[in-house]
Each structure stands twice: as C-alpha cells, then as structure tokens.
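> forwarded from #structure-qc
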C-alpha cells in the first residue's frame, strides 16, 4: 500500500456474506460524510446520533437502513466513519457497497480498518493482533483470552518491562555522557535489574506453549485396523453421521477431519484402517499411508480394536507405532462377548452399537484433553511476539554477563538498547512495512 492509498476513503462489507438479519457496510476516511450525504435520503448526520433513512442510487431505492456516524478521532479507525446497517442478504449489502464505491470510496484491503486504527494510535500492534485472534478464535476460552489482550493486558506488561529497561539504560547513558556530574550505575544494580527483567520476560514466555495450544488446538486421531468401529466412534463423538459406516473392511479410504470445542480446539481425525493385504487397491493403500502419517502428526491417539476378535498381531503392530504417544486404548464390540480379557492395562470397554461405556469414554477423553489445556494462561502471545521476546531476552543475557564481568558500560548499553527495540516491535513502536503488511494481510476484508 502506498502513502496516497493510506489517505483515501475506504469501504467494505463488515459482516459475513449470506442471508441474515443485518448486514453492515463500513466507510472510513475524510470523504465518509460526503459520500453518505450523496447516497442517503437523510441529510442530518450528527456524530454519535443514530439516523434512519434509505440508501438510494439516483432515483432507485436500494434499502431502508440505520446509520451510525462517527467523527474522528472518536471512531474505531480514528477517522471519520459511517456504518450502514441494512437488511442481511448477499445482494442487498453488495448493492449498497457498489453505490458507496461509485460515489468516491475505494474497496478496503484486508485488515485495512484495523491497520488505520493502529496507525492512528487507537490500538497498539499487540491489540490489533488480538482483534484477529478474537475473530478467528476456535473456542470460547481462546476468545476470552484474546479479549484480554485486546483490553491491553499484554501491552501493559510490555510497557512495564520497557519502563524498567528505559530507566536502567537512561542511567547508563547519563553516566557515559556526563561522567563528571553523574556516576555510572553500580554493576550490582545492573545485574539485579537485568535479572529481574529477564524473569519478567520469562513469565510471558512460560505461557508460550499454552498460547500455541489455545490458538492452534490439538489433533486427536482414531487409529486401528479396518472395521473395528473407528468411523462409528468418530460419528458418536461428533453426534453427527459424518463418516460412512459399513461392515465392509476398508470403507474409509481418506482422512476425515472435524472440529470439537473441549475447552481447547480439537481436530478429530478419522483414519483409514491400517492393514497389510496383497488384495488392497491403490486408493486404500494411499489412505493407509495417510493414516500412518496422521498418527505420527497427532498430539493424542485413540487406539481402537475389536474386543470380539481380541488383540490380533495386526493390532499389536499398530499399537507399537503409537504407544509412545499420549493415548487411550479402546476395546469396541464388548456386547458380542461374555467375558472381556484386558490385554493392555487401562483399556476402556465400549459398545458403540448399544452405547454401553460411551459416556464413560467421552469423559475419559475430556480428562485426557484437559491435560493439554492450560488452567489459566496469563499472557497470550503469537509466534512473532514470542520471537521478539526471545531476542530481547538474549540481548539482556549478554548485558547481564557483561555486567557480571564489569565490562565497559557503553558496550552494555548497546545490548540494552537492542533489548528495548525488540520489545517495541511487539507493540509496534518499531516496525517495518513488510512485517506490518504481513500481519494485516491475514485479516479478513472489512476488519
């Protein structure tokens, strides 16, 4: 985006396309009110006061709407903003957007409204990224955590760390520049300050794994021989008939995935039955290879076998592949036998056909999944922010070692300054266009 584009008035549909009760078209920029006056029957647009009228294109009435006018800097973007609420429907919102574009606005790029909010200092960069996290949150837990970042929890912590570092760096600079008036800080003070700041950064980084799990979720694969009930279990856990179920071995020939919210986002994977047979066709062979790959990549395994057939050599071979991963062992079809012999400790006995043991299995799966779920994550960070924190920490560790060795303080200052710059990348005080564009290119159009 060039500098001329950044000052143009932009517009986009801010609600998902489709049939719905309400659609929203957002206009932002210096010409927002001018454009609104051209296309609305009501001419009395007062910031902060909801208006009612019609959107018109010449003599053609497009839709009856509600208008929300905002005046800079008191808007989401910090610019003049007009939000038009119309009836939901693909053609309605598109017709209104086309009318807006014809009268002087251009189509907004991905994330451009939030980018303008950042550039106009309505949000810092960590809060802008929290907006994207909030929109794309796969679970209610992650949505709540993202809202905390939007409220400034991470930004405030970074500000606190930067303030401590800035004070230390200022004392170093004063001692270097004015040695006759200001003494250099004691090395013991620098050591204590650096250690404390490193601990503060570690307190955020300690939440990195939890952050990644909340953001990305975990993969749970159902693995076993053909025809042991994997697809039936898949359907039962989802409470829908998503996978085809027959008594013919090899029905599932591809990897099927669906999402579950168990406090953490779970991708449930139904895999093709793993077997060695000269008679399997090429398609099933590919499916089996996908199954093995899915088992390898999964964070958690549900290993299933047929209780009536017992634990066969094929079952044992499959179990050898997955036994070192977190897993549950499930014996299905227990309704077809009188006495069950447990061959693997803590095997869960079920019958998907009669539903016996299914509720107990679901609870055990939830308990196992909760081990992946952080009870409380104070700070949610993404990979970019974690990288900035790691770089800041590395600089401070070098400064700490230099202070312990009582090296020249002007050399120590270089590392302290670098640590500060890395932290400023998190909040966006120091950032380059490539990183900025990469962040907002992941947003949807209209946000």
């Amino acid at each position: 985006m060039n500098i001329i584009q950044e000052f143009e008035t932009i517009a986009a549909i801010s609600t998902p396309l489709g049939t719905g009760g309400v659609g929203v078209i957002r206009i932002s920029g210096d010409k927002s009110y001018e454009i609104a006056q051209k296309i609305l029957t009501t001419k009395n647009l007062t910031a902060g006061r909801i208006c009612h009228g019609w959107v018109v294109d010449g003599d053609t009435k497009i839709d009856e709407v509600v208008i929300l006018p905002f005046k800079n800097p008191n808007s989401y973007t910090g610019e003049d903003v007009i939000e038009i609420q119309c009836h939901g429907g693909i053609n309605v919102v598109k017709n209104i957007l086309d009318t807006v574009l014809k009268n002087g606005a251009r189509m907004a790029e991905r994330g451009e409204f939030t980018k303008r909010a950042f550039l106009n200092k309505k949000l810092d960069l960590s809060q802008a990224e929290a907006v994207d996290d909030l929109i794309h949150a796969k679970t209610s837990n992650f949505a709540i955590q993202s809202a905390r970042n939007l409220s400034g929890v991470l930004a405030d912590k970074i500000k606190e760390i930067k303030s401590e570092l800035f004070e230390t760096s200022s004392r170093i600079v004063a001692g270097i520049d004015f040695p006759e008036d200001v003494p250099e800080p004691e090395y013991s003070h620098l050591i204590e300050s650096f250690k404390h700041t490193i601990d503060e950064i570690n307190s955020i980084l300690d939440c990195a794994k939890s952050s990644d799990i909340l953001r990305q979720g975990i993969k749970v694969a159902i693995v076993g021989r053909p025809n042991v009930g994997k697809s039936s279990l898949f359907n039962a856990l989802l409470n829908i008939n998503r996978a085809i179920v027959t008594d013919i071995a090899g029905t599932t020939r591809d990897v099927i995935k669906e999402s579950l919210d168990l406090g953490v986002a779970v991708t449930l994977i139904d895999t093709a039955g793993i077997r060695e047979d000269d008679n399997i066709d090429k398609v099933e062979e590919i499916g089996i290879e996908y199954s093995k790959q899915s088992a390898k990549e999964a964070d958690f395994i549900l290993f299933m076998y047929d209780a009536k057939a017992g634990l066969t050599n094929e079952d044992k071979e499959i179990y050898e592949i997955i036994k070192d991963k977190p897993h549950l062992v499930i014996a299905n079809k227990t309704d077809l036998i009188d006495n069950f012999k447990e061959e693997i400790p803590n095997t869960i006995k079920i019958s998907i056909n009669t539903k016996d043991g299914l509720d107990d299995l679901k609870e055990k799966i939830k308990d196992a999944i909760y081990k992946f779920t952080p009870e409380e994550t104070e700070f949610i960070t993404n990979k970019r922010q974690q990288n900035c924190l790691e770089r800041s920490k590395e600089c401070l560790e070098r400064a700490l070692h230099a202070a312990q060795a009582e090296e020249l303080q002007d050399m120590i200052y270089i590392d302290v300054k670098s640590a500060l710059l890395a932290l400023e990348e998190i909040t966006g005080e120091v950032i380059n266009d490539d990183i900025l564009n990469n962040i907002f290119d992941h947003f949807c159009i209209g946000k």
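QC bot note: The first helix runs from residue 3 to 6. The chain has 16 helices and twelve strands.
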